[in-house]
Every structure is written in structure tokens, then in C-alpha cells.
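pinning this so it doesn't scroll away 📌
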Amino acid sequence: MGPRLRLHSLDADRKLMQSSHRAVGCALVMSAAAATGAACVASAASAPNGLSYSKASGRVVQRQPPAGACTARGAGLYARPDAHCTPGALNPSVTQATLSRTICRGGWTSTVRPFESITRREKLASMSAYADHGRASAFEYDHVVPLELGGAVNDPRNLWPEPDYSSRSGFYLNPKDRLERVLTAWCALARCRSPVHSA
């Protein structure tokens, strides 16, 4: 990769970070973690980033905000969720003490990820909350704080109908997915000492 391409890539990554969701979990503390050796994940007693912990079950359809109650910030692929409706939430099972059994264990997210039969209904209700009237396939029902970084499994404060590319050209379909992969890799290097594999 030449110097110009490398610089373009860094600029693109910086823009992704600036326009992505509110940085939470590992994303919020990554620079401090790198400098101080702090944990990627907050302790079970508190969340320094101000986010709530949630044990909302991934096996039960969760109530969504009322129709029209939420407004995305921005538009298109760089839209962000309503900070009041969807600020993000954390999984209390992911702590510094449990990293090797949770986010640092390959395949762990597949053990906690909600079933599609649950999220399909939630996604439609969430689209109604955000007044999104397009096709459901044009949106990804996405975790604000990714499961791979300790995000709450099925709390409406951590899931929203994120606009997606209009055509499917790869597995990761929107700019936030690329950012999540970078942050997950950073967290893996900082705390797990091996790549974190998501399912």
C-alpha cells in the first residue's frame, strides 16, 4: 500500500469514527486503555461512560419506543440513532473478570445473540418508532454497542434500525460495521491477546 493510499485509508477511518454512533464500551475508552492499561469493559458496578447495564433477554420480544418517538441524527449510511431512544446499553455479564469466557472466546456472540424470530418483530416496531417507512431489508437492526464489545444483548436502548446499503455487495454492509471490526481487533489486542471472533 503506497503512502497516498495509506493516508486516504487513515482519513477514511477517522471520518468513519467521527460520523459513527456515539463511541461506547471499548470504543469510548480505547485511547485511555491503550495509554493506561485500563480494562476494555467497565466493571459490573458502574459504567464510567454513563450507559446503563441491561439483562433484557434475547429470547423475549422487547417493547420498543412508541411510533414516531425517535428521530435519527443525520441521514443515509451515516445516520446515528436518537440519543434519547437509543443511547446504547451494556451487558453486565461482560466484565474484566469474565473476558476469557465472554467477548474473548471465539463464537461467544452466537450464544447470546437474539433469535431472528425475536428481532424481526422488534425491528418492525423500532422502524415504526423511528418513522422509517421503507422496506425492512433496507435497514439492519443493529446493536449500538456491539455484542463483541460488551453491548446489551436485546435492550431497545441498544438496538435500532440502521440504514444499510441499497445493494448487497459484501458481508459488512455499512460504514459502522468496518469501524466495529477495527475496534473489536483493538480490544482483542489490548485485553484478549488473541483475535476476538464474532459469530
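📌 and the second one:
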Amino acid sequence: MRLVRARFVRDIGIVENVPIFHGELTLPETLSSVAEARRFVRATLADWPMTCCLDDVELVVSELVGNALRHGRGRPVLRLRGMPDRLRVEVLDESPEVPSPRASGADGGWGLYLVERIATAWGVQPHPQGKVVWCELPAASAGMSAAGCPGSR
């Protein structure tokens, strides 16, 4: 795996006796960062003792990072937070503008609709440096498969 001028962190914390896994990647302001984000997702989730539908995670990460690059400002920051029952994906960018689904068609507009269909929840939070667009997907601890994606990791 090759990370292009990106800062990344992987660690684990304990909150109320529950392990919380954390991965973070700061990406360059270039559309090739979407592929870099997917590689980071695959490598990070391979190290964590939880099961997720990797295809779904990669899809929402691609959409959220792509939106941050096309419509946001600054270097996007991708954060993954693994909890026993879910995976939270967050993308921070420096624009305070709140995204909303737009009319979809041949020129695009499908991204947030896909995120809405795949994720169990999604939203936008203001941040002192812009905004965080987040979504959550189902996950299970090691040895079990996530709902909707049997046997995947």
C-alpha cells in the first residue's frame, strides 16, 4: 500500500469498557485521493476485529470523499470509527456549506442518495474548520458477518 503525502493514524481506545477503533487519513486535494481513501479503508478494516460489508464501506467513502473534493474546500480528512455494532465514516472538509441531495441524472447527483440507501444513518455536523459529513453502517465483532453482506469483511 502506498499513501501519497497523507497523514494516517490507527489506534484503539476504550469508552465505557467498549473498544473503539479509530483510523484517520488526511488526503491531498486531488481526485486521485478517492482511490487512496479506498485503499486506506481496506487496509484499516483488515486490521480490525470487526466485520463490515467492505463494498458498501468503499462505496460510501468514495462518495463522501469525492463530494468533499468536488464541492468542499481544503484537504479532506477521512475518519473511521469502529464500534462493536457499527462503523462510522466521517469526512471533514473546510467548507461550511451543507450538502444536500440534488436532482440525479446523467451528469451525477446520485452520491448522497446512495449513501442514504446504504447507511443506517447519515448527517452533517458543523465543525470549527468547516463541516463533517458522516454515515454509519452495520458491523459485527469478529466471527460474525454484518447484516446485509453475509460472510464479507
